[in-house]
Amino acid sequence: MKAALWSSLLLLAAVSSAASKRAKPPEPADLIGVWIGFTEDELGFYRLDLRPDFTGYCAFVAPPDTILHVQGVRTYRVKSWRLNGWALETDLVPLGAKAAIFLRGRYDGFALQLNVGGMGSWQRKLVLRPESRAVIPNRETKQAIEEAEHN
User: Fold this and answer.
1) Residue 85 falls within a domain, yes or no?
2) Is the pLDDT of residue 4 over 80?
3) Fewest CB within 10 angstroms: 2, 8, 107, 135, which?
4) What is the pLDDT at residue 29?
5) What torsion do the CA atoms of 119, 66, 47, 129 make, to the nearest 10 degrees?
6) What is the average pLDDT value for the chain, to the nearest integer?
7) Residues with Cβ < 8 Å from 36, sequence gap 6 or more?
8) Range of the structural domain that residue 136 is part of
9) Average pLDDT estimate for 122-147
10) Residue 96 within any structural domain of the chain
11) DSSP 63
12) Which residues of 4-27 are buried (b: 16+ CB within 10 A; e: fewer)?
């Protein structure tokens, strides 16, 4: 009984100690690469390419099964991006697109939780995940299904 009580107290102390420590904010290197995902309404697919020189590109398109797809892909140059603690801010320049947009939010350690918006005060929530995180699982699951079909 004493051993169980002692173990419980040690566990409680460890949890309390861990809870009081703050997570170390990400470094810019943690965000370099390609991030992909949809807006919360699933009407916009975004690709954000963050480069080591704090520039990059952003492009978005509506899915092909929506009427908005005829508007085509809109592309922006990331003139600069900066990380302030967990917050990400970008300065986007339209490339052929007619309207300026903003893209800003937070990195949560796994994904970019962003807001995208522009003229006319429209705004959408957007979650972007590393492209590499989807490529391998997609390939592996597709391959497993193909193997199952042939067995």
Assistant:
1) yes
2) no
3) 2
4) 94
5) 110
6) 87
7) 45, 46, 47, 48, 128, 129, 131, 134
8) 28-149
9) 92
10) yes
11) -
12) eeeeeeeeeeeeeeeeeeeeeebe
Task: Check: CB of residue 112 under 8 Å from CB of residue 127.
Answer: yes
79 domain-assigned:
yes
DSSP code of 39?
B
| Phi, psi angles (nearest 5°) of residue 11 | -65, -45
Identify the CATH number of the domain in which residue 45 sits: 2.40.128
Q: Please tell me the total count of domains within the chain.
A: 1
pTM: 0.80
The partner residues of 81 in beta bridges, in order of sequence, read 90
pLDDT reported for residue 121:
78
* Three-state SS letters, 87-125: EEEEEEEEEECCCCEEEEEEECCCCEEEEEEEHHHCEEE
pLDDT in tens, 45-70: 999 999 999 999 999 999 999 998 99
The confidence score (pLDDT) of residue 14 equals 56
49, 32 Cβ separation under 8 angstroms: no
* 137 assigned to some structural domain: yes
Integer CA distances (angstroms), 52 to 8, 73, 80, 83, 93, in order: 46, 24, 11, 12, 18
Please state, in angstroms and rounded to a whole number, the distance separating the CA atoms of residues 127 and 31. 14
Pair of tokens at residue 83 = 């990380």
46 neighbors 37 (Cβ within 8 angstroms):
yes
